[in-house]
Write a structure and sequence with these properties.
The longest helix is centred in the last third of the chain and has 44 residues. This protein is 74% helix and 0% strand. It folds into 2 domains: 38 residues; 48 residues. The protein is an all-alpha fold.
Length: 113
Amino acid sequence: MTMLQGPPTPPPPGLDWTFLLDQAMPIVAMIVLFIGLRWVLQTPVGEALAERIRTKMRGRPGVIGEDPHRVAALEDQVAQLHGQVAELAERLDFAERMLAERRERKLGGGAGR
């Protein structure tokens, strides 16, 4: 015996609680998540997480001023580079003076002929 089934019957008029709960569930879940996260971060576990993040940020490469040995090594390198730049400046001045003297001799010797 087969029964013929017609089109589904529409829901009765009024408030559809299933639809309303389906729509509200993500909002409720986010509120619960934020409240739970805030609660966890105010506990000693949250303080430990914050301290761990602070420690990692201090030890991050590129942050200068935290490691005294690294700062001392960088200061030594800067002092060496400063000395090398000063020596190169002296050599450049000497070379410029030599070229200027040569040019003056060349110009002065050619004008007397």
